[in-house]
Amino acid sequence: MIDDDDSAPYGHDLGLSHDLPTLHRRGLLGLVGGGALAAMTFGLETAAQAVTSLKTIPEETQGPYPADGSNSSGLNVLKRTGIVRSDIRKCFGSATGTAAGIPLTVKLKLVHVKTKKAAKGLAVYLWQCNRDGEYSLYSSGLTDKNYLRGVQVASKTGYVTFKSIFPACYSGRWPHIHFEVYPSLAKATSYTKKLHTSQLAMPADAAKKVYATTGYSASVTNLAQVSLKTDNVFKDGYTAEMPAISGSVTKGFTATLTVGV
Predict the structure, then answer these.
(1) What is the mean pLDDT of residues 18-43?
(2) Domain count along the chain
(3) Whole-angstrom Cα distance, residue 84 to residue 92?
């Protein structure tokens, strides 16, 4: 399943090198004032600088619950029929159950660092804990569940989109989401073929709002006992792993991040 989201926030952002040849100062001045033109030019330059400075996403541990065939459990959900899906809130295959929690849409834009072009065709395996801080397939009472795990293929604009829930903050870790990047869907069958492993660091403001709602009470205490500076994954830097986030607890949140590959 390919999420070809050309309406996404940066779906048409091809950079300053693409935009400038199509713009003519005289024509623009006939349409907008000098101040507006300056603001537009500044915006294009800022976008170009952001793409130019893009670096490869930091490598992180996949943690103890990846289900990608890498740990001693031998679990590999990547080979199961139904894993390729955008909405990961429900179990798939013969498993049943739905993860409750505040809705969260995760949008990742994959971009080749060397060429600065959208990484069309790469695959992303994303997984996370539920609102109780537990992982399907591993945690007690959830070994027969496989929700909050899924694979998507990058569209022509480089986007993959997952519909999930806001993850809990469990003891000892900052709230996060795991993901692996693969060369293609065909190769997204085992950790041995992955290109990158990383994590998303969820923004504190959104986390605090979510954790004030029913079902997330344990996360309030856990979040108060950890920080990005003390977290064993993000303490060496998290800027490239923290998504921009919008929305509310009533309508759900959307987290967007550009991932350099």
Answers:
(1) 36
(2) 2
(3) 10
